[in-house]
Amino acid sequence: MLPKRRRAQVGAPGGPASSEARFPGVAIYLAEPHMGRSRRAFLTRLALSKGFRVLDAYSSEVTHVVMEQTSAEEASHWQEHRAAAASPQRCSRPALLDISWFTESMAAGQPVPVECRHRLEVAAPRKGLPCPARMLPYACQRPTPLTHHNSSLSEALEMLAEAAGFEGSEGRFLSFHRAAAVLKALPSPVTALSQLQGLPHFGEHSRRVVQELLEQGVCEEVERVRLSERYQTMKLFTGIFGVGVKTADRWYREGLRTLDSLQEQPQRLTQQQKAGLQHYRDLSTPVKRPDAEALLQLVKAAVAPVLPGATVTLAGGFRRGKLQGHDVDLLLSHPQEGREAGLLPRVMQCLEKQGLVLYQQHHPGGCGHAEPPPRQSHPMDAFERTFCILGLPQPSGVPVGSTQGPCPTRKAVRVDLVAVPISRLPFALLGWTGSKHFQRELRRFCRKERGLWLNSCGLFDPEQLRRKTYSGTWALSTFPRSREMPEPTHWPLCSAQLQQARPCGLQGEETWASPCPLAPDWEPQLCGVLLPDPGPVGPRSCPPSSPHHPPLPLPVR
């Protein structure tokens, strides 16, 4: 039997004593992963024989880390994890060096100056970047500023998402959008692919796109999509008021490519699409915040004489703090339940008398006192609404709301008017504030994490829907724990309080955090479920929370 081979002794953890080292200011650590134990032991003996100090364990004393057959990204990733475990409070980090520095130093018999060709670092240490493992999985849980640090990367992914949507690929559409949302939530610029390690919803395809952008400044796939005839035509057609992806795709397959080709065939256009083509130049121009505020005042002036006490709230991207958008969303309501019914036609009639209505399309609602649909495809489906194009008077001496007739200088603006019952207003305001991805993630959070259904009508418990035993009239509640929910007629709903209820810290596409819009003293949480209406006897009340249906806080961090 052969004797057991004794493991090679690399040396004491601290290497030779400082008195024996010829270069006390240099402490080398040989990283083993791609080097191997035997080679590391050989190189250690070589360095010790030359008078270098070699440490057997990584510590704060290390000044030079030597690696072999290791990329810059691998070296940076290795250092992040090893440095955090060894000395989290260390201010400076040792130099990450290729084996070439070590061999040159051994040949020279002394440490050679560190040059750029020796270094493996790809970027300076990043400050403020959260631990990837702690990135929350739902976009509705992460604050996202309007102006973030990775706009070029997120815009590239959003373009690929848009192109995937044009092709009907829902999976790729969602994947790219979720990856873009993660980039928007990062508190610092992405400069290396290693920063994306462990982040949720960042698949191989998205990582490859980001890697190309970081290394080359452009991504071949993104540029190919941007310049493709298919993408440009679909984007042009879907930018027309009243044209969706399916219609644009049909036109493309029929050989249509330009707006002129559509105008030559008016028989294939709906009235809405004809209006969209007629005012295409104005409608394709972003709506600025001053224009949105002017339209808000214009509609308020039209609503006041028609239904005193009614409120008009600006929603959409402008409520999130955006400075421009593609349309203006306005929610109309009244403190007395049901008074908002039939309001929109009267308001539109008032606007028509002023010569401001260029186009309108009215849709009756279906979400009133009856049981609303628990799951709906679009937040607009439940309420009475009017899609219209208004001619906003431009600065020409004609005041907003004037009854002097048509204004010679006006800009066509898309306006969506929605009449919302007071009992549904908190959820309608949430749904119409957006963004689309935030709402999609919020509904997914409610469904997967809480087992509830959320839409613009309310938050529903599917178990109670299945166990329904009452006559069919249901009461929607937004209440804090076990407090009594006041009757709709007692809800303090004035325009000033609606302004106070705007999203606190709502900085952009994804963030939402605010108290209940109807009562400032209520806790900022949505813990409502669908309850049977006990009838007119007494106020509705909330049962104490139970393990099966605990209070649901609005998922915001």
Automatic annotation (TrEMBL):
The listed locations are: Nucleus
Pfam families named among the record's database cross-references:
DNA_pol_B_palm, DNA_pol_B_thumb, DNA_pol_lambd_f, HHH_8
* SUPFAM superfamilies the record matches: BRCT domain, DNA polymerase beta, N-terminal domain-like, Nucleotidyltransferase, PsbU/PolX domain-like
Q: Which GO terms describe its molecular function?
A: DNA binding; DNA-directed DNA polymerase activity; metal ion binding
Q: Residues that bind Mg(2+), according to the entry?
A: 327, 329, 416
Start and end residues of each stretch annotated as Disordered: 538-557
Protein name in the entry: DNA-directed DNA/RNA polymerase mu
Which organism was this protein described from? Nyctereutes procyonoides (Raccoon dog)
